[in-house]
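Mods, move this if it's the wrong board.
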Amino acid sequence: MNRASLVIALAASMAATVGCASKNYVKQQTTPLINKTNELDDLTAQNTKAIKDVDARAQAGIQQVNQAAAAADQKAQAAGQAASQAQQSADNAVHRVDTLSSAVANLDNYRVVSESAVHFGFDKDFLTKDAKAELDKLGSTVPNTKGYIITVEGGTDSVGPADYNYSLSERRANSVIQYLGEKYNIPPHKIYLIGLGKDKPVQDNKSRDGRAANRRVDIRLMTNTAEGAQPSATGSAPPSM
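Not the wrong board. Structure tokens:
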């Protein structure tokens, strides 16, 4: 081999050796960087998941707080409505006492035109077919009666507590009022409602028949005019009860 060829071969060998060395060096330098980058990617993914979990829990907490606030607001509104209803009931009770006193005084100016009684089952407040037929007899005479009012007195037998019987007697009387109002268009200010409970029996409560007779509502059609006369100026119908 001549000198030129030897130099060329040596140069080629040195170039190959340098190339391998450069690749190995680069690999040694970049491998730790790649590993570190992978670690950072893993850490970023973990942090992202943690942030999402925290955000989800925060949103759930906010929703629970909003629901609790809405429930509290509903309770407050319900309490306010209950207080308003209680006040209205109290006002109505005072009004009923006042109008009852007025009614007792004014009833002296009225005479009875017709009267009926309807009966109810034990602890019942709905009208039977016979009860409606009886009310129809009275209701049909109302259009021909001038200056009229109607008194409705509810009663019960002696079975049960007094407070319950007062409530039951009023419910029975209200059934009569509702029927007359809906079918015969009798306005509320023409009707007196009186719940008697068991305080005014028509028969002795010791017998079954007597108790059945006391489970009733008495209805009286009354007028403040003499027969054939026009209504008096001072005997106008009192307010409703």
